[in-house]
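worker-03 picked up job from queue 'complexes'. Input manifest follows; two sequence lines, order preserved.
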Amino acid sequence: GAGVSQTPSNKVTEKGKYVELRCDPISGHTALYWYRQSLGQGPEFLIYFQGTGAADDSGLPNDRFFAVRPEGSVSTLKIQRTERGDSAVYLCASSYGGRRNSPLHFGNGTRLTVT
Amino acid sequence: AQSVSQHNHHVILSEAASLELGCNYSYGGTVNLFWYVQYPGQHLQLLLKYFSGDPLVKGIKGFEAEFIKSKFSFNLRKPSVQWSDTAEYFCAVRGNTGTASKLTFGTGTRLQVTL
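worker-03 finished. Artifact:
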């Protein structure tokens, strides 16, 4: 079946611009996660949704980062006033929420480059 | 707060050599533990997981890991590596309370298998 889909796969933007990154989870997965991975590092947690609501947004680095999931399926990560330090691979994952032993299924990520 | 430490950042082995990658975690409660693998150009994939029961868990492609509670460790092993095992390996922990919650990753170990 279809896995987690992320678009675009690559995004290059200028410093100060606004970007949106999209994630389509696996059908039926109610939990959705955003992670950020910098070169040589492990994935760093940003935010986790259970259904439409953000259950844990403790990983968002500052108020320039925001994520939504209005219908409990597709999610969009929004970054305002981008900075060069935001350059990273942004990963989305989904799981069969409500079960703490449900593994995360990851997408291929969006590589964001801020010039 | 939960955290994961992977001590080996880069490991180079010859084909048929045995592999052990270290993983230690910190969490004040019961945990679920995971190993994920990322092959070059691919997304993160689940290698194996521990939730409860037998502390020795077997995963795909001949990998196994042992949960040693007293040492807060979950080391990954494979008796004989293949060239196709060249990849980055990530250990991850999730607190075993409530519903699905965030997964915390280590910084990863890059494994290079030579012919």
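worker-03 released lock.
Chain B has a mean pLDDT of 92.
Chain B touches chain A through 28 residues (CB under 8 Å).
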